[in-house]
Each structure stands twice: as structure tokens, then as C-alpha cells.
Amino acid sequence: MTAPHTGGCRCGAVRFEASVEPHHISYCHCGDCRRASGAPVSAFVGFMTDQIALDGKALKRFENGPVTRTFCGVCGSPIAYTDERLAGHIYFTLGSMDMPAYFKPTHHAHVREQLPFLHMPDDLPRHLRTSVTRPDGQRPDGTQS
């Protein structure tokens, strides 16, 4: 499958399209993602914001520190998150993609927060913290660059 990649909410009030392949596909085990999704683990597909089109007057936002999560104001479906420390990036929820089976995660993030009963026996790299190097130099392994 090649771009464009499309997705949206359950009711169709929010739609998006990415014109390129994603730069990031991962699982996240952090408590914030868990609360936002209502699931024991979340999965995200990352793109550059200038490579996506987002349409939806019903799109709502919730800000928590540097992270802004978007969701449909009609049906409540989680759509994406942005992080002010990662300017120009957007991470769509895997479940909001029209073809989610295409996007196989390549690693796990925040495994130090993984629920003890959740077993995911794959061979993917596991990062104790973030899976994306932040501009402040924090690397996926938790060290500073």
C-alpha cells in the first residue's frame, strides 16, 4: 500500500489524509495514552503535519502539558496527538486509520509503565521512556545526547 493514507472518526465528522508514508509507528504504554484511549496500550502512526490534510469542524482538543490530544466532538473518537516538543509532527491513533492492518508498529515506548498483566511477546525494541528523540536531547533509551 502506498500513500495517500486516510482515516477519521466513527461518525465521519472528522477525516484526514496523509500524502506520504509514516515516519513512525509504535505502541505506547504510558498512563496518559492509556487514560486518553481507555485501552491498556495505544498505537500511533506518525507523520509530518505539512504532509497531512485534516478536515473536521467537530474536532476538539484537550491539552495536558506539552501534549494536545484531538478527538471528535460528536462521537468522541480519539484522533491524534501533537507534542509541542516535537514541532511539525502529528501522531494519529492506529484505530482511526482506515486501513489499520497496514501499519505494523516497529517498537514499544514507555514500557516502564506497561501494565504487568499485559504480555506482548514480540521481538520489537522496547524503550523505557519515549521512542522519539526530543529536541532537548532526551533519547529513546532515556539518556541525553
From TrEMBL:
Residues in the signal sequence: none
Q: Which InterPro entries match?
A: CENP-V/GFA, Mss4-like_sf
* Alphabetical keyword list: Lyase, Metal-binding, Zinc
Q: Does the keyword Metal-binding apply?
A: yes
Q: Where does the record place the CENP-V/GFA domain?
A: 5-103
- Tell me the segments the record calls region Disordered: 126-145
Q: Name one Pfam family in it.
A: GFA
Query: Could you confirm whether the keyword Lipoprotein appears in this record?
Result: no
Which Gene3D superfamilies does the annotation name?
glutathione-dependent formaldehyde- activating enzyme (gfa) (3.90.1590.10)
Alphabetized PANTHER family for the sequence = CENP-V_GFA DOMAIN-CONTAINING PROTEIN-RELATED (PTHR33337:SF40), GFA DOMAIN-CONTAINING PROTEIN (PTHR33337)
UniProt record similarity statement:
Belongs to the Gfa family.
Task: Write the protein's name.
Answer: GFA family protein
**Which organism's genome codes for this protein?**
Mesorhizobium abyssinicae
Lineage of the native species? Bacteria, Pseudomonadati, Pseudomonadota, Alphaproteobacteria, Hyphomicrobiales
